[in-house]
Amino acid sequence: MDNKIRIGLFGFGVVGQGIYQVVSKAPNAHAEIRRICVRNLAKPRSVEAPGELFTDRVADILDDPGIDLIVEVIDNADASYKIVCDALRRGIPVVSGNKAMIARHLPELIALQQEHDTALLYDASSCGSIPVIRNLEEYYDNDLLLEVKGILNGSSNYILSRVFDHGEDYASALAKAQALGFAESDPTFDIEGYDSLFKLVIITMHALGVYVRPEDIFTFGISSIHDSDIRYAREKGVKIKLVAQVAKVGNGRFTMFVMPEFVRPGKYIYSVDDEYNGVVIRGECYDRQFMFGKGAGSLPTASSILSDIMARRHDYRYEYKKMHYIDRPVYTTDIPLRIYVRYSSTPIPDLLPFTAIHEQYLSAESCYVIGDINLADLIAHRHILSALDVFVVNTSSFFEHLD
Amino acid sequence: MDNKIRIGLFGFGVVGQGIYQVVSKAPNAHAEIRRICVRNLAKPRSVEAPGELFTDRVADILDDPGIDLIVEVIDNADASYKIVCDALRRGIPVVSGNKAMIARHLPELIALQQEHDTALLYDASSCGSIPVIRNLEEYYDNDLLLEVKGILNGSSNYILSRVFDHGEDYASALAKAQALGFAESDPTFDIEGYDSLFKLVIITMHALGVYVRPEDIFTFGISSIHDSDIRYAREKGVKIKLVAQVAKVGNGRFTMFVMPEFVRPGKYIYSVDDEYNGVVIRGECYDRQFMFGKGAGSLPTASSILSDIMARRHDYRYEYKKMHYIDRPVYTTDIPLRIYVRYSSTPIPDLLPFTAIHEQYLSAESCYVIGDINLADLIAHRHILSALDVFVVNTSSFFEHLD
Questions:
Q1: Residues of B (318-347) whose Cβ lies below 8 Å from A
Q2: Does residue B1 carry a pLDDT above 60?
């Protein structure tokens, strides 16, 4: 009679508990959490759920023929990968929020969906409650797309807002982000840019139909930010934001990277503060569109998962249409960037193969250089960057002339 | 081999010419304009298209078995209605941008789609290039939705920006909007709020699954704005924006109206200037999401039409799922509002049934009153408002406490 969609839920942390709450608030979802698999049954939770729902055996969900859909929000990419693959192989559709797992295994996960005629939805994996993936897949489905660029990580953005706008120190801002539940349990994911990177990999698949491996993409986070960087940005009247972007760069090529950027007032992402995410989608005919919303937190992420659950009621799946496009653009790192590098003692201008140096500032406390460098050279030297006390900020923009 | 989607295009004005351009820029759309029906074959056009494409006979498209899809962007709601109905009755899917026609005939158009097992898509009808309809239909498809509120008319917003931010006079701002192609050929549609109203009717169907007739909704435009209104707003540090909103107001009810509003800095829509549109979608768990983009103009609208054309390749249609929801909210106008009314000579406080008056200002040049009034009473008195030199501004917000 009441053909409820019966859900097997993996994970009952911040997001899992949010899903449990959101499903109970949405009668028109016709969804029911039938079983919850957790690693540690004894762990206390702030959200109450009937004890008989819980199990610590994965098979109790995967082997249950009464389960229509698996929702997977556990905090371990390897375990998540195994569960998702097992489910897809059995033809059980899955909704997942695990961006690291999805970004690393996307080609295989696409093949599994096709082979077993089932679906994996993961809109919640990128930008929490903002429907970026769905819109790129369904709406911006044309050759006009030029660039997707934005603040994809709520936690690092929250930290930058506290440090930058409220004068707090980095460590206390990070602790606050963790206490509020924005930060991943491993905060390096957020602050080193990996969370943004994984989201960018997923976005690029749905924006351009091309998969690029995370390890082939330049990623620089915010953990090495110094007071002098903040002072520099303030003097110039700009903010520092951790920005992920994928952009067509002409001749059938595109590039992508994750890097702090100096953002001028007037730019859409300038006003994206705290735990919010904001994504600018630029196209040839529609100029720029901006989507803005809560990108992190229990309930925003859970409401996005709910949208995926409801999409499954109508048998929605990603078609990955753009993978079959003619003239898909090709990933390139052979592209000049203008960057700011703040350094202390090491002679960065000698260590990095700048093609031109535009500014250099030297002082006992800290130095910086602004110069042009090829992205490929930057990637080749990332071991140097990660070993030293440097902070790298992108100052270039591919479509500046259009703004 | 190359299974192109063959389009019969009705209308070759600003938007029609944009569609012709955009389709040619998007090879992956696999779309082809096969025939263009115009009223006047002799009219010169700025975009060149081969002469043999044109016809002035509707039947040349409707009777052509080689046409897969009709795209209708003519500027006449009655003619549009006839073409769309005829096409749907023949089972030919239609993409339309005609908000007036759709808003007035939505229940019948939904029935026709079901009866003849075909589709009518109209994402371009609301907010040009911003995918509001599609997202409400597919993504915010749950009970959590609280409110959709925004600036839905690019032309009136452009005029308000010119008048308000640039100190231009109303007439020259309107002329500029028309010259730039933002304004409808009948500018009263834009400036009297009807364009926003029609979009709001369509949005409400996809947001809440309920159809409300345009004539049952309070609509007040911007044509009667005076210098004293602008001065008042400036003194208070707010902007005047023409805002359309639909909001749940408790006890299973919702309300909706189109009215100028005093918008404070910090509100998302405060920064929506010029011909841009911005829509805030508020939900119980995801707080507020903001979508922002070009809402008017040839190419932005055409790119939205292109998204609908491409959606038809995958047999996409609106399911109108929310029409079948349990406990759909019920439209009410029995709701208190606090409004500002600027008037000249007539004693507005005596003419309108305010339940409370909070402020009154009298001077030789102009007067205003701020008071509480029931929306139903405001609707009952709209003949008075339209006959007099008054300007009405909403000062209430249903979810102020959540911001």
A1: 319, 321-322, 325-327
A2: no
Cross-strand bridge partners of residue A246: A148, A256
Strand A94-96 and strand A69-72: pairing?
parallel
pLDDT attached to residue B183: 65
**Residues B254 and B399 sit within 8 Å (Cβ to Cβ):** no
**Torsion of Cα atoms, A133 then A67 then A24 then A56, to 10°:** -100
- Give B35-66 as a DSSP string: EEE-S-TTS--SS---GGGEES-THHHHT-TT
User: What are all long-range contacts of B380-385, with beta carbons under 8 Å and residues at least 24 apart?
Assistant: B381/B351, B381/B352, B381/B353, B382/B218, B382/B220, B384/B351, B384/B352, B385/B220
CB contact under 8 A, A290 and B292: yes
Residue-by-residue DSSP string for B334-362: --EEEEEEEESSS-HHHHS--SEEEEEE-
pLDDT tens-place string over residues B31-56? 999 999 999 999 888 888 999 999 99
Of A28, A134, A326, the CB nearest to B142: A28
Question: Taking CB atoms and an 8 Å cutoff, what residues of chain A touch B304?
Answer: 286
Structure ipTM: 0.86
State both tokens at B395.
Answer: 């000062």
Sign of CA dihedral B219, B222, B224, B230: positive
Angle at A395 between CA A394 and CA A396, to 5 degrees: 100
- Rounded to whole angstroms, the Cα distance separating B320 from B114 reads 10
Consecutive H or E run containing B188: helix B188-191
Nearest to B134 by CA among B330, B331, B305: B305
Q: Distance between CA atoms of A106 and A198, rounded to whole angstroms?
A: 10
d(CA A329, CA A326): 9
Six token digits for residue A299 = 């309930």
Q: Does B402 touch chain A (CB under 8 A)?
A: no
| Residue pair B322/A309 in contact by the 8 Å Cβ criterion | no
From the first residue on, what is the mean pLDDT of each consecutive set of 10 residues in chain A (403 residues)?
A: 86 93 89 96 89 96 97 94 98 95 98 98 86 88 88 93 87 84 75 95 97 98 93 92 96 96 90 92 88 85 91 91 91 97 90 96 94 97 92 86 62
Across the interface, do A287 and B271 touch by the CB < 8 Å criterion? no
- Would the CB atoms of B289 and A293 count as touching at under 8 Å? yes
Query: Does B293 reach chain A within 8 Å, measured CB to CB?
Result: yes
